[in-house]
Amino acid sequence: MHILFLTDNFPPEVNAPASRTYEHTRQWAAAGEQVTVITCAPNFPQGRVFDGWRNRLWQEELMDGVRVIRVWSYVTANEGFAKRVLDYLSFMLMAFIASLFVRRVDLVVGTSPQFFTAVAAWGVGALKRVPFVFELRDLWPESIKAVGAMEESAAIRWLEKLELFLYRRAALIVSVTHSFRDALMRRGIDGSKIEVITNGVDTARFSPRPKDAVLVRELGFERCFVAGYIGTHGLAHALDTLLAAMHELARRPEGQDIRLLLLGDGARKAALKAEAERLGLTSVHFVDTVAKEQVARYWSLLDVSVIHLRRTELFTTVIPSKLFECMGMGIPVLHGVAGESAAIVEREGVGLVFEPENVEQLVAGLLRLKAEDALRARLSAAGLAGANRYDRSALAERMRLALHATALRAR
Q1: Do residues 307 and 320 touch, judged by C-beta distance below 8 A?
Q2: Whole-model pTM above 0.90?
Q3: pLDDT digits over 367-407, tens only?
Q4: What is 213-390's CATH number, 3.10.105.10, 3.40.50.2000, 3.60.20.30, 2.40.10.10?
Q5: Contacts 24+ apart (CB under 8 A), 267-272
Q6: What is the domain partition of the chain in residue ranges?
Q7: Is 275 helix (H, G, I), strand (E, B) or coil?
Q8: Domain spanning 2-200+391-409 has what CATH number?
């Protein structure tokens, strides 16, 4: 089977969509499938092309058995709705054109969060007369409204109509959460064509390891209790809550040896650094995005991982992928996301849940985990046990079989 996969995020980018697509496609190739990925020059989340790369009309490489075609797109930082849409539209057009030169395709997959990539995949599927598969990672454009980037308007209503059009035209929808599946079914989408395949963890890369001694010295984390947030610093994440918690801890004797590591980039990073400086937070350490193979070194520094999103109804339906990486590393979680992901944390016993944007509860959780060694050990052991149930290899195989079944039905 020849799988054509369209995505605007792919390694060396290290965000969740890039990691999931790479880990799935390389396993499909290892299983004997022919896989072609069409993507763009790596630029997320800074909105500038990575060093050593160029934003060319066409670049091609072979990555772990996967043919990767990179096309030109309009590159911009993740700020400003109009520029981001221009970014999305340019990739949609160029990915569609590039797909015309990929021959003998059995099906085409388009992945979100933004669904203009899925529009290109639908167009390619229609033109080549092969099934179109929508991998649903986010309820977009609902998430635009949830973070306040755009208010209810005619443009939003048009995007919602386009969204429903794509759901109806898809031969298969692969949803990363059960909540997304339920939301689509309430909107009249046939549940029999929706397959839930959550995010997971590559246990070969994310496994327990001692704290990286070199990084401990570089960051001055000797004899400190280290909390950390690793991921995109965007509008959705409300990381001001973490800074407010560290400001409160700085006033308390029991909080003097607590440090916060913030690793990543995004639209809010500059503002967060300015706020930390305004508050005089010497206990907060900002680190820019690192290469994919270096991420686990920074995870190893953490005594607890903080996972956080804004307090909004939409985010009760999401499952942050970093939860599974924490489980694989055996790192206890302080989970500030309500809904389906909080249920996983409590069911698997891998962390403590606090109300999103609640500074007092976050402070209390940090102090409790710092004080209770036995609790941290119990949460860590539960995470390692639970990670086996979210192994990326097994999840990739489930998706491969779902794609096979979809291609067979179309013959």
Answers
A1: yes
A2: no
A3: 999 999 999 999 999 999 999 999 999 999 999 999 999 99
A4: 3.40.50.2000
A5: 267/45, 267/77, 267/78, 267/79, 267/233, 267/234, 267/235, 268/233, 268/234, 268/235, 268/237, 268/239, 269/233, 272/233, 272/239, 272/240, 272/243
A6: 2-200+391-409, 213-390
A7: helix
A8: 3.40.50.2000
